[in-house]
Amino acid sequence: GMGHMWNNSHAILQKENGTSIYDFGACTVSQLLLGRDDNLVAGNANGYYRNDGRNPCLKDDNTYLDYTQNTLFADGPPHYDFIILSDRTTWPAMEETRYKSLKVLKKSYVPLLLESGGIPVLFATHGYDSNQVDVSEFGGISNFTSDVFEGYRQYAQMLSENLPAQQQPRIAPVGLAFLLVYEENYDMWQKLFYADNYHPSPHGTYLMGCVLYATCYGYMPGNQALPNLPKDLWRRARKMQIGSKKHKMPFPTQEEAVYLYSVARKVIKYGERPKTWTRYYDETTESDFIVGTK
Q1: Residue 193 CA: distances (Å) to CA of 59, 180, 198, 264
Q2: How far is residue 237's CA from residue 34's CA, in Å, rounded to a whole number?
Q3: Pair type for strands 19-22 and 12-16
Q4: Which of 17, 121, 259, 286 has the fewest other C-beta atoms within 10 Å?
Q5: For 283, which DSSP code?
Q6: Which CA distances in Å does 180 have to 124, 185, 186, 290?
Q7: Three-state DSSP class for 15?
Q8: Confidence (pLDDT) at 63
Q9: Which helix (H) or strand (E) holds 222?
Q10: Does residue 281 contact residue 150 with C-beta atoms inside 8 Å?
Q11: pLDDT 10s digits, 88-121
Q12: What pLDDT was estimated at residue 4?
């Protein structure tokens, strides 16, 4: 459903009869992870998927489906070292929706993960306070973040019990890094968000990237993550923020990038945790699935 946001000149595959065909990547999770989807047919003729008219592989014109099968995955299934998974922002924080996600993970994602061989990395997102989404029931940023993290920890626990040793899950504690900024530097925490106080700004995206990199590779990114002009890190971005002409967000300065980098390092490498974070598990007997760095 985000096609209208990504239809730009960088994504054009070809033009036919004055109509541009854009690269949207894979059309389903199975196709993305395995390079195929036996249930994906032109026009959704078998009715397997709910067709909202926005998925290019499900349209009556099967041009894009042909592209994914004959070009994108023509050389066979892709190889993944890591597979990043993220739920809807509030679902891990609520028992009812958390239970639904656990069922889907076990029934649908575990078989795909086993076949793909990649290590799942759970992107544990941040708490926020936005008029775009009613989050009043969570009782503030700290409680929201704590509830979200516990949901992801339970996801990781279930995956751990159903995946082999070489595919044990990891959690990228993005929310804990955001919460640490919230406690240390409230003005900087506000800069982590886009104008809707919900989606991340370039500052927030930078912090997320540092946490995710360290979680996957086991060490912090090198000097290339701290250039003299941090905005250069976005020079190859396919698209910036939604509505960026109206709410153009600044890039972090080098000083700000150094601080955000240090926050990621404190959380991942040194195990520092926000003081207002609530741990809902016994750390002596249960894992938090956060992998430290060298």
Answers
A1: 35, 15, 6, 17
A2: 26
A3: antiparallel
A4: 17
A5: T
A6: 14, 8, 10, 16
A7: strand
A8: 84
A9: none
A10: yes
A11: 999 999 999 999 999 999 999 999 999 999 999 9
A12: 65
Q: Is 43 within 8 Å of 78 (Cβ atoms)?
A: no
For 194, the 3-state DSSP assignment is: coil
d(Cα 265, Cα 262) in Å, to the nearest integer?
5
Exposed/middle/buried for residue 69 (C-beta within 10 Å: 0-12, 13-18, 19+)? middle
Residue 41, burial from CB neighbour count under 10 angstroms (0-12, 13-18, 19+): middle
**Backbone φ/ψ region at 256: left (φ over 0), alpha (ψ -120 to 50), beta:** alpha
Backbone angles phi, psi at 3, to 5 degrees: -55, -40
**Residues lower than pLDDT 50 in the chain:** none
What is the structure's pLDDT at 235? 87
Please report the pLDDT score of residue 89 as a whole number: 93
Q: How far apart are CA 191 and CA 67, in angstroms?
A: 40
Matching residue, tokens 């946490």: 211
| Measured distance CA(88)–CA(72) in Å, rounded | 27
Sequence-ordered list of residues with C-beta below 8 angstroms from that of 230, at least 6 positions apart, any chain: 206, 251, 252, 253, 254, 256, 257
Which residue intervals of 7-94 are DSSP H helices?
Answer: 29-34, 63-67
* First vs last C-alpha separation in the chain: 40
H-type alpha helices, 135-270: 141-162, 174-184, 186-191, 202-217, 254-268
